[in-house]
Design goal:
With 979 residues, the chain is α/β, with parallel strands linked by helices. The protein has a domain at 260-489. 51% of the residues lie in helices and 6% in strands. Residues 739-925 form the O-GlcNAc transferase C-terminal domain. TPR repeats lie at residues 125-158, 492-525, 526-559.
């Protein structure tokens, strides 16, 4: 019996039996010491020592083994020699022996053993892979690649072979300077991944080869790598997205065996996350749309919904989404118009998403679970398997989020959804939510905050059982930055971005603390240095800001904000070094020498100003690729024309109809917006700014007729015509307009062409309008116009942030008292606190109504202006620090103008007149005057202007011409004095 057991243990073949006459392999001292060392290791590692017992002789001094080579040579190899003598054909012993010789750099012995394995097992993928690794070690790179490739063909799910092949190809592709050779190497890497994909997964998503759940993340990584390679060329974008989607579909499929009905696709995943988000954020103030609840078969109505309770009750989101067909997609698109809606969730809401999506697996990705025997329940995977799958899935989601963020203005096709959709930021946010719910990390919180900080959309959320709060994009971004810092209080990017939000709120002290901490933690963080420079400059210390900008430029010479900040700060302290002009003007070199423009090689010399101009030009160009197709996605052509009919108060005449149909019709056909310099998002905002005062005029005529004065105050009930004079809404798919790093106020001191000057102001104006028009407090109708002047007295409102010891107060302190009280009633809104000087008491005494609005919200100021029936609202700030242009962008008055505070063009549709001096603001550089001249010459007809994006005399600031700088009507102070 003993003999039979020994033979069974050793081998079932007679060739592998040990000769009983052979010498004892354990007889040598080397063998003895190796076995004892291994036994001691097992004894101590299992904590099996018996108290009071001594396992090692006192006179025995074990050899000190302190490196891998000694362990391999004195312990591992002797044991393997013994095992091989007992089992000469056991390939597992030979594999480990080959690896040991490789570790000892005995490559010949390692290769000999691997070849011996292939003699015994010709399809041993492990031996092939080991030969490849050894070939690489001896410099035979091509042979190494061939052996790894042979191993992968034998075993397509051999992850070591995949890693070896890709780790060989990628560095070569990245290091070569030959683009064609690099493309070839990436193509070979793509072949590796595609081979694994074809062998492992069928076209319908079913696994062709059994993949253990603990290895599923490796197969995901293959799809992820394949997609990453495809993303390098624009021709393969759709294939890349397909690979990303397949990587996600692998883990949302329930474990086998499953029915085909459970093979969910990316379409169901996207829609299911939307549904989960709606259910989780449901409140009485912001309920889930009834249509969506009815389509899904979820009971609800206007009452808040307990999403977790619904999921635990057996409601399957994926099954409901699939059963809805296209009805759910149509309902979601109807919310915003051919674009997926925004979902703004708090971090604690995001954490609930997996539980709502996968209640059957307790929030665990179903693909890594196992079917319990004789049960419908799923077995949960170990924590390490779950973490690996979550991390890989999160990486795929983050890559998709970034990709769709780059496509935020484009119409793209999503597999499973008919046609194309404007993905805006909604899809990116959706992927960020899911990634964050699976694998929270500070960097994901940071990315989430960045994208939210650009959004003005507001969503109500419960912060307590009885309290609610409305969160705008920036406010919600602050929540995410704070959550990220709770995970990593030393994360420099989170600190910097949170500081920027505080700076935007005017809290410079807190912002500078956060910037300082970020710089302390990461001294080479260029963005933190720039932001710190901006904050220091805003405190009036331009000389101190210089050092931060200079350090940032040294670290990143192409960072726009760093270059622009450095140029402006150097100019403010009269440091003209490296100041060139970009035009035919004098320049200054590093030693402060003045250089004439016609020096030899002048065109090859570039200082900071020329670089700033180039950067600004590139930033201005970005707008032409943003918010494309927003007009056609938001409304039909007829719906846009209906808005115009309301402006005219009558049906459009044929010539007018042809003109406006041609203007808007451009956006419904193919058009190269970059080539034509068409800013589609900017045009939408300009149109809304243009239409608002005209709707206010129609409202006035409807209520009062052509009456200019009345003997008593007449008030208009906003609700009486509130459903008539509706303001066109911004498409929900629109993203915020980008702004250049050069601020409008800085254009005074730089040699810039007229078009760039007006575009810098115009782009900032568009951003201000976008923010104002996106606010939840803004009524759907335009603000009601003030009634006729009572006894001929007009209500004049001034808005200023400088009613203190400031140059504006020095110049204007007596002007307020000069108004003819028989013709004007003066209101003054100050938006900053009193500095204790005498200027404010003096000025406040000269106006009828002085309003300290320093602690008021924009909504409160706008409402006060509307309620007090201000006829003319005057902006004394413009593009100066602390100005409240957002008040004017809400258009509370039908006539709004700019005076004193800012000497240039605002480039804004919310400013109708600029009261100025004809020297600083030449009348012939005003768009209105150019329009008049062209009409007088017969070149400004309505048909001619339709070829551009002009709105009557409101020239499109994007026009490729330098023949006008001011985009508003000018009213000369000299003419006023003469009158």
């Amino acid at each position: 019996m003993l003999r039979a057991v020994d033979e069974a243990d050793i081998s079932s073949t007679s060739d592998d039996r040990v000769d009983p006459q052979a010498p004892n392999p354990f007889a040598s001292s080397i063998s003895r010491d190796a076995l004892l060392a291994y036994t001691y290791h097992l004894y101590h590692s299992q904590n099996s020592q018996v108290p009071g017992m001594t396992p090692i002789p006192l006179n025995c001094t074990p050899p000190i083994i302190d490196n891998v080579e000694q362990v391999c040579k004195l312990q591992i190899l002797p044991l393997l020699v013994i095992l091989r003598s007992l089992h000469p054909q056991d390939t597992s012993i030979l594999l480990l022996m080959a690896c040991t010789y490789h570790a000892l750099r005995d490559f010949d012995s390692s290769l000999t053993l691997s070849q011996e394995i292939l003699r015994l097992e010709p399809n041993s993928a492990e031996a092939m892979c080991n030969i490849g690794t050894t070939m690489m070690s001896i410099g035979q790179h091509d042979q190494a690649y061939e052996w790894w490739w042979r191993a992968l063909q034998v075993h397509p799910l051999y992850w070591d072979a995949v890693d070896h092949l890709l780790n060989f190809l990628f560095p070569l592709a990245q290091q070569t300077h030959n683009s064609q050779h690099s493309s070839t190497l990436y193509a070979r890497a793509l072949d590796v991944c595609s081979f694994v994909e074809r062998k492992a997964v069928a076209s319908n998503g079913r696994l062709l080869l059994p993949v253990p759940t603990h290895q599923l993340h490796r197969l995901q990584k293959v799809f992820f790598t394949c997609a990453t390679i495809r993303m390098m060329t624009t021709d393969n974008i759709s294939d890349a997205l397909r690979d990303y989607f397949r990587a996600l579909e692998l883990v949302i499929y329930p474990p086998t065996p499953r029915s085909d009905g459970d093979a969910y696709t990316m379409r169901e995943l996207i829609l299911a996350i939307f549904v989960a988000g709606y259910l989780i954020q449901s409140t009485s103030d912001d309920p889930v749309p009834i249509e969506i609840l009815e389509i899904l078969g979820v009971p609800g109505g206007s009452a808040p919904i307990d999403a977790i309770a619904i999921a635990q009750s057996g409601f399957d989101v994926f099954r409901a989404v699939r059963a809805s067909g296209d009805r759910l997609v149509t309902a979601l698109l109807n919310i915003t118009g051919n674009a997926l809606p925004f979902l703004l969730l708090l971090p604690e809401h995001v954490a609930r998403v997996p539980m709502v999506l996968f209640p059957g697996s307790m929030g665990v990705l179903p693909g890594i679970c196992a079917q319990a025997p004789n049960s419908s329940h799923l077995q949960m995977p170990p924590d390490n398997v779950r973490n690996q799958a979550n991390l890989m899935t999160s990486s795929v989601l983050l890559a998709l989020a970034k990709r769709y963020q780059d496509l935020s203005s484009a119409d793209v096709a999503i597999p499973g959804l008919t046609g194309t959709l404007n993905v805006n930021y909604s899809l990116s946010i959706l992927f960020y939510y899911f990634a964050l719910s699976l694998s929270p990390s500070p960097s994901t919180y940071n990315n989430m905050g960045i994208i939210l900080s650009t959004m003005a959309y507001v969503s109500p959320h419960a912060i307590h059982r009885t309290k609610r709060r409305e969160f705008s994009g920036p406010a919600l971004a602050k929540v995410y930055y704070t959550a990220g810092l709770q995970m990593d209080p030393s994360h420099p990017h989170l600190l910097t971005n949170l500081g920027s939000l505080h700076k935007d709120e005017g809290n410079l002290e807190e912002a500078m603390k956060l910037y300082s901490k970020a710089i302390y933690l990461k001294p080479d963080f260029d963005i933190a240095l720039v932001n710190m420079g901006n904050a220091v400059k805003d405190t009036g210390r331009s000389w101190d800001a210089l050092e931060y900008y200079r350090r940032a430029v040294e670290l990143n010479p192409d960072l726009p904000e760093a270059v622009c900040g450095l140029v402006n700060s150097m100019a403010s302290v009269c440091d003209w070094r490296w100041r060139d002009s970009g035009l035919n003007e004098f320049s200054v070199d590093a030693e402060r020498h003045a250089l004439p423009p016609n020096l030899p090689n002048y065109s090859h010399r570039q200082g900071y100003v020329k670089k700033m101009i180039d950067i600004c030009e590139n930033q201005l160009q970005i707008a032409y690729s943003q918010n494309t197709h927003a007009i056609s996605a938001a409304k039909t052509l007829d719906e846009w024309l209906e808005s115009l009919q309301l402006v005219f108060g009558r049906p459009l005449r044929k010539q007018e109809l042809d003109h406006w149909a041609r203007l808007f019709g451009q956006f419904y056909g193919p058009m190269n917006r970059t080539e034509r310099q068409i800013n589609e998002g900017g045009f939408i905002i300009r149109f809304i700014d243009w239409i608002q005062p005209r709707l206010q005029r129609r409202w006035y005529l409807k209520v009062y007729g052509k009456v200019f004065s009345a003997h008593k105050d007449t008030r208009t009930d906003p609700q009486s015509y509130g459903n008539v004079f509706l303001r066109p809404a911004l498409p929900r798919s629109m993203t915020p307009p980008t702004v250049p790093s050069v601020l409008p106020f800085h254009t005074f001191i730089h040699p810039l062409p007229a078009r760039m000057i007006r575009l810098i102001s115009h782009r900032h104006a568009l951003r201000i309008s976008f923010t104002a028009l996106s606010q939840s407090w803004l009524p759907r109708h335009v603000y009601p116009p003030p009634g006729p002047a009572v006894n001929g007295v007009l209500n004049i409102g001034y808005v200023s942030n400088d009613v203190n010891d400031h140059p504006l107060s020095h110049l204007m302190q007596s002007v307020f008292g000069m108004h003819d009280r028989k013709r004007f009633k003066v209101y003054l809104y100050t938006t900053t606190t009193w500095d204790g000087t005498s200027y404010r008491p003096k000025i406040s005494a000269d106006v009828e109504v002085f309003v300290d609005a320093s602690q008021w919200s924009t909504a409160a100021i706008v409402e006060h202006i509307s309620q007090n029936k201000i006829h003319i609202l005057i902006n004394l700030g413009g593009y100066t620090k602390g100005a409240r242009n957002d008040v004017f962008a809400a258009r509370p008055c039908p006539i709004q103008m700019q005076l004193m505070g800012y000497a240039g063009t605002l480039g804004a549709g919310w400013c109708d007149y600029l009261v100025c001096d004809p020297v600083s603001c030449p009348q012939d550089m005003c768009a209105t005057e150019v329009w008049r001249r062209r009409r007088s010459l017969g070149n400004g007809s309505i048909s001619e202007s339709g070829t551009f994006l002009d709105l009557d005399a409101d020239f499109d600031p994007e026009r490729q011409t330098d023949d006008f700088t001011l985009s508003v009507c000018t009213y000369s102070l000299r003419d006023a004095v003469q009158d």
